[in-house]
Amino acid sequence: MIGIRPPIVSALEALKPKAQWTLGGDSYADLQWLDQIQTKPTEQEVEEKIAELKYQEEVNVYQEKRKLEYPDWEDQLDKIYHSGIDAWKTDIKAIKDKYPKQTMDATELQKRKDAAIFEMQKRNYIVAVARLAQYELSAGVKEEGNPWNGTYIVEPLRIWVNGERNPLIVQDETEREAAQEVINNTPQAVKDSVSS
Hints:
- By secondary structure, the chain is mainly alpha-helical.
- The protein has eight helices and six strands, in the order αββαααααββββαα.
- It has helices spanning 7-15, 43-59, 61-69, 73-83, 85-98, 106-133, 167-185, 188-195, and strands at residues 21-23, 31-33, 141-142, 152-154, 160-161, 164-165.
- The protein has a two-stranded antiparallel sheet with strand order 1-2. A two-stranded antiparallel sheet has the order 3-4. Strands 5-6 form a two-stranded antiparallel ribbon.
- The two termini are 36 Å apart.
């Protein structure tokens, strides 16, 4: 069931059965893909599958409600023996009518998937904006007031270390580029929902 463990686990098992991966938390960012045969699903695929599984779980609630009202097998067999199969069918039908079988509606499912993708984009946008708000390691942080006075609150890192570009600066630049790409690709409606 999806409520017992992180939803991403159920989604990964449904999308890529028997794939090899590890999860260091409960989000896509914590996923380390180890499988050499199956490709890693995208974050969007995982979010859509989570939405689908949650909806399916809601739809299947009728089954649990029926189970709770059905008499145990001994009582059902006793009813058939003493009152006949038609009397038993009448009792069972009343329970089935009380909790009718539910099915997933395609329009509702798509609506839920769209909402899940919107929330994923919103989360990713917020993280990207926060990442870009951090100072650049190569620039440091100058003292406020007079940016030309040469006084730093945080000294910039050296760009070159042992004849190579500083790996911390390279990583900082790579993360900043990725964050900017997320921001550039975020739909305006998502951006507006964050700023409102």
